[in-house]
């Protein structure tokens, strides 16, 4: 990946914010996986401050992040494997 091609997860691309009922419960996902905030953030490439903001209700995931969280919720192992370095 070239510098500048990174896909931000915190809304920097101005992705629309999904309706409140379309946003996965981040804390519930993380707790179901039995991960701390630090572990979850590191495992899935989410900035810790962003994760904390979502869990504390200060921020809401944009549509891209919400879709990613749904993938993590449904296929956590596959999401981690896809992110693993070769």
How would you sum up this structure, described in words?
The chain is 50% helix and 0% strand. It has 86 residues and is an all-alpha fold. It has a single domain (20-83), classed as lambda repressor-like DNA-binding domains (434 Repressor (Amino-terminal Domain), Orthogonal Bundle), CATH 1.10.260.40. The protein is globular and about 35 Å long. The model is unreliable at 1-6 (pLDDT under 50).
Overall shape: it is: globular
**How big is the Rg?**
13 Å
- Tally of alpha and pi helices: 5
Mean pLDDT figure: 85
When the domains are counted, the total is 1
Helix content: 40-55%
Say what the CATH topology is: 434 Repressor (Amino-terminal Domain)
Topology, number of strands: 0
What is the name of the CATH class? Mainly Alpha
Low-confidence stretches: 1-6
Quaternary structure state of the chains depicted: single chain
Distance between the termini: 14 Å
Could you give the topology of this structure?
Blueprint: H1 26-32, H2 37-44, H3 48-55, H4 63-74, H5 76-83
In short:
The chain is mostly helical and 86 residues long. It has helices at residues 26-32, 37-44, 48-55, 63-74, 76-83. Helix 4 (63-74) crosses helix 5.
Question: What distinguishing features does this structure have?
Answer:
86 residues, mainly alpha, 434 Repressor (Amino-terminal Domain), 5 helices, disordered N terminus
């Amino acid at each position: 990946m070239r510098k500048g091609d990174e896909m931000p997860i915190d809304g920097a691309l101005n992705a629309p914010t999904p309706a409140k009922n379309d946003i996965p419960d981040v804390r519930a996902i993380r707790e179901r996986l039995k991960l701390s905030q630090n572990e979850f953030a590191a495992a899935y490439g989410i900035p810790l401050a962003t994760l904390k903001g979502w869990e504390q209700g200060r921020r809401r995931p944009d549509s891209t992040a919400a879709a990613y969280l749904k993938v993590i919720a449904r296929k956590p192992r596959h999401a981690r494997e896809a992110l693993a370095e070769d």
